[in-house]
Write a structure and sequence with these properties.
With 253 residues, the chain is of the alpha+beta class. Helices cover 20% and strands 35% of the residues. Strands 1, 5, 7, 11 and 13 form a five-stranded mixed beta sheet that branches. A four-stranded antiparallel beta sheet has the order 2-6-4-3. The chain has a four-stranded antiparallel beta sheet with strand order 8-12-10-9. α1 packs across α2.
Length: 253
C-alpha cells in the first residue's frame, strides 16, 4: 500500500475565528431550507453552493457542509455531533464590495462562529483511504465552459448520482461517503465538470447466504467505466476537525 502524507496549512493554534477581526459579510441570512425534505424527495439530497464576486448562496446545506466549504475540508475531516449533518439551511450572504472566493470562505467562517457559536480544534490522524487518479485512456467528464465558482451541485444518491459544475475535489468528497473512507483528489484536473455515475449495471445480486452488496467494490468498477477514473488504496496523515460546540439552530438574522 502506498503511503500518502498530507498536511493542511493551518496553524497549530485552536481553530476559532474572531468575528471582530475576520472579514465579514455586509448582509447575511441563515434560514431553514425551503427544499422539500422527507423520504423519496430526491431534491432533499441536493446541496447547491454558488459564488460570484462578493456573493455567496448556499441552499439546502447542512452545518457540516458549510464548515467544510468555509475551511476547505473534506467530509471525513469533520467530527462532531449528529446534529451538524441533520438540519439543512439556506445561506444567502453579500459582502460590502466585490470579493474573491478565498475572502468569502473567511467571511463564512466568521458568520458560522457568530450565528452557530461554533468552536472546534484539530488533531492529526493517520487514515486508510483512497486517491482519485486518472484511469486508463481519456476521462469521460464534460468540462464546463467559462468560469464556474463554488462546488456545484449533486442530484441523486445511492446507486446513481449526477454532478453539475463540480470540481474533482467535490467528487472525491462524495466518493468518501460511498467508500466509507477518505478519498483525496489526485487527478490533476482543474476546473468544473458535469458527470453522471450509474452503478446499477455493475451489480451482481448476492445469492442466498452471501454477504450484502459490496458497494465500494461496485463504485470502483463503475468509476472506471463511467468516468475513466480510478481509486487507489492509500494512507494519509490528515487533520481531523473536532467540533467542540455548535448551536443546533443559528441566532436570528
Amino acid at each position: 500500500m502506498v503511503r500518502l502524507v498530507l498536511y493542511t496549512s493551518l496553524l497549530v493554534s485552536p481553530l476559532v475565528v474572531s468575528a471582530q477581526t475576520a472579514p465579514q459579510f455586509d448582509v447575511a441570512s441563515i434560514k431553514p431550507s425551503q427544499t422539500p425534505q422527507g423520504r423519496g424527495a430526491l431534491a432533499a439530497l441536493r446541496e447547491d453552493i454558488d459564488t460570484t464576486p462578493g456573493n455567496l448562496t448556499m441552499r439546502n446545506v447542512t452545518l457540516a457542509t458549510s464548515i467544510r466549504w468555509a475551511y476547505k475540508l473534506n467530509a471525513f475531516q469533520i467530527s462532531g455531533p449528529d446534529s451538524i449533518s441533520a438540519d439543512r439551511f439556506d445561506i444567502i450572504a453579500k459582502a460590502g464590495s466585490p470579493a474573491p472566493e478565498s475572502q468569502l470562505r473567511l467571511m463564512l467562517q466568521a458568520l458560522l462562529v457568530d450565528r452557530f457559536k461554533l468552536t472546534f480544534h484539530r488533531q492529526m490522524k493517520e487514515l486508510s483511504g483512497y486517491a482519485l487518479v486518472p484511469g486508463k485512456g481519456p476521462n469521460k467528464l464534460h468540462a464546463v465552459e467559462g468560469e464556474a465558482g463554488g462546488e456545484g451541485s449533486m442530484v441523486g444518491g445511492g446507486l446513481i448520482f449526477e454532478g453539475h459544475q463540480m470540481p474533482m475535489s467535490r467528487l472525491a468528497d462524495i466518493l468518501s461517503g460511498i467508500m466509507k473512507a477518505p478519498v483525496i483528489d489526485m487527478t490533476g484536473l482543474d476546473g468544473h465538470y458535469d458527470f453522471k455515475v450509474d452503478m446499477r449495471p455493475y451489480i451482481t445480486p448476492p445469492q442466498p447466504g452471501e454477504p450484502p452488496l459490496d458497494l465500494p467494490g461496485i463504485a470502483i468498477v463503475a468509476l472506471q467505466s463511467e468516468l475513466g477514473l480510478k481509486l487507489e488504496s492509500r494512507k494519509a496523515n490528515l487533520e481531523v476537525f473536532q467540533i467542540d460546540h455548535a448551536e443546533k439552530l443559528p441566532t436570528e438574522n
